[in-house]
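@here heads up, posting the sequence + SMILES for the zinc ion run so it's all in one place. Ping me if the SMILES looks off, I pulled it from an old spreadsheet.
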Amino acid sequence: MAKCAGCDRNFIFDENCVETGDGDLCPECAAQYRAEAEEEICYQRQDNITEQQFWGYKNGDVYAVEINYAGAVTGVCGPIHRSEQRIGSLPDFDYSTEDADWVNENVVDFQLIEGKMI
Ligand SMILES: [Zn+2]
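bot reply: prediction finished. Complex structure tokens:
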């Protein structure tokens, strides 16, 4: 038997339990602990860039864009010259947060060409 660090009850440790820095958690406390940890991760990712992509504008120009976890554009660079339209170049562009508003407002005028998770 183990004693739960969350609710002080005795329990049998199994795959539903969690070991934390503060002690072991029973299945019920472990479930709550996992839910809170997941919420925390989602929250932290809100502004984090998760993807860089090339987007084609309606006039034929190509822009490099950074997308955050929520799917919003947070940075834009472009138009990008054809010779630099390589997936490997995506991390090297100088992304502007000011132009991101313009892209978010005109997102229907763009289409995804290709991208990668970062
Ligand atoms: Zn507990």
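MO: The chain has a mean pLDDT of 89.
MO: One more: Residues 55 and 112 are 5 Å apart (CA to CA).
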